[in-house]
Structures are given as C-alpha cells and as structure tokens.
Amino acid sequence: MTKVDLEEAINEKRDEMIKIGMTKGLCCEETVLCSQELDKLLNDYRRLTSNKRMSNSTFLLNDLVTLIQNLLRFFSRPYKFLP
User: Fold this and answer.
1) What's the pLDDT tens digit per position in 42-67?
2) How distant, in Å, are the alpha carbons of 9, 14, 42, 65 from that of 24?
3) Is residue 38 a contact partner of residue 13, using CB atoms and an 8 Å limit?
4) What is the DSSP string of 8-34?
C-alpha cells in the first residue's frame, strides 16, 4: 500500500469504528475488532513513514503512544463523533 492508500484506509476505518461504537457501544466485539484493524493500519503507516534506523522497541513504544492518544481523544470528546 502507498502512503496515500493507507491514509484513505485509516480515515475510512476510523469513521467505521466511530459509527459502530456510537450505535452498538464501545465494548461491542465488532467495535473492538474494528479498532484492532485501525491499529494495524496505523502501525503500517507509522512503519512506512518512520525513519528506517529506528529499533523495533522504538516502533512498539511509538505504536503504544499513538494508540493511547487516539483512545484518550475518542473518550474525552465522544460528542464530536455524534451524527
């Protein structure tokens, strides 16, 4: 996947996850699976755009930070995602 393809896929998956989460709840298995798919896309994007010299442990730490930031953003402002 190219960078542009990944960006589009990330945006689509994020929108899908938000819609599912708002209709079926955040603990719904479908929401969790969608969130995991989004995490994979974000990890792929980070690896594609990051410096190649970074170690694997740095990738894992950066991925964890990104995940936490996205979850905090989602939980702190859920009203922004209402239709």
Assistant:
1) 999 888 887 555 555 566 777 888 88
2) 22, 15, 23, 26
3) yes
4) HHHHHHHHHHHHHHHHH-TTSHHHHHH
